[in-house]
Amino acid sequence: MSVNILVVDDEFEIKEMISNALKKYDYKTDSAGGYIEAVDFLQKNEYLLVITDKNMPGKDGGSEGGMELLDFIKNNYPSTEVIIITGYATIDSAIFAMRNGAFDYVMKPFRIDNLLNKVHKLFEYHSFINIDNTLSVYKNIQQKMIGFIDTHSMMNEEEKQELLEKLVEINDFFFRTLKAREKVIIEQREALSNVSNYLEQIREFNIGNEGISTLLIKAVEESNRRL
């Protein structure tokens, strides 16, 4: 899958591990070691996804360069999605990142296959017919989920994480169901397109028969209307 992903982390080993894992799936990657270098990449290239550590050098020497980068991306490249890595942090920091526009998160220490699953999930959403609308609905539901969790502030960290994971799972199941229905629509569209082509070919063979030609023209028009 030839798409551009920017990996940002001030820890070289983690940056390389993520980049190498993505390349195995034919994702094209660039890597940066902090906020300033990442911004330079973003200004020169187009990225569908940025995977960034939360706790890394920021633009003014701060320690949360990942959050600064998330804010920069959402303000300047809104179509670029962000998966944020929250380093040894609480679930609240992950929720905060999602509330501020992150598509998803992983918490250190993380398994690389868990991160890859989230990357694959994002590109599954990009395979919908109406990508912008699908992502907009997904994010709206995501924000409602986060709001629901915020109203249950008495929960401990483990309970919050368990609830968030469960709600995300329900949300993904809903969209997987929509994707299955969309597949049927695409197959119907392809079938109608084939029918229209076949009818047009038959009409050409029966061009001298006005009655048959008229019926075939109507059939082609109806097929195209439903397409």
Average pLDDT confidence is: 85
In percent, how helical is the residue content?
55-70%
Q: How many domains make up the coordinates?
A: 2
- CA radius of gyration: 24 Å
Question: What is the strand and helix layout of this fold?
Answer:
Elements: E1 4-8, H1 12-23, E2 28-32, H2 35-44, E3 49-53, H3 65-76, E4 81-86, H4 91-99, E5 104-107, H5 112-125, H6 131-150, H7 157-205, H8 210-226
Parallel strand pairs: 1-2, 1-3, 3-4, 4-5
Can you offer a commentary on this structure?
- 22% of the residues are buried.
- This protein has a five-stranded parallel β-sheet with strand order 2-1-3-4-5, with helices on both faces.
- Strand 3, helix 3 and strand 4 form a beta-alpha-beta unit.
- By secondary structure, it is α/β, with parallel strands linked by helices.
- It is built from eight helices and five strands, in the order βαβαβαβαβαααα.
- The model has no long low-confidence stretch (mean pLDDT 85).
- It starts with a strand and ends with a helix.
- It has two domains: 178 residues, Rossmann fold; 43 residues.
- Helix 2 runs parallel beside helix 3, helix 6 packs antiparallel against helix 7 and helix 7 runs antiparallel to helix 8.
Features:
alpha/beta; Rossmann fold; 8 helices
Describe the structure concisely for a colleague:
The chain has eight helices and five strands. The protein is α/β, with parallel strands linked by helices and 227 residues long.
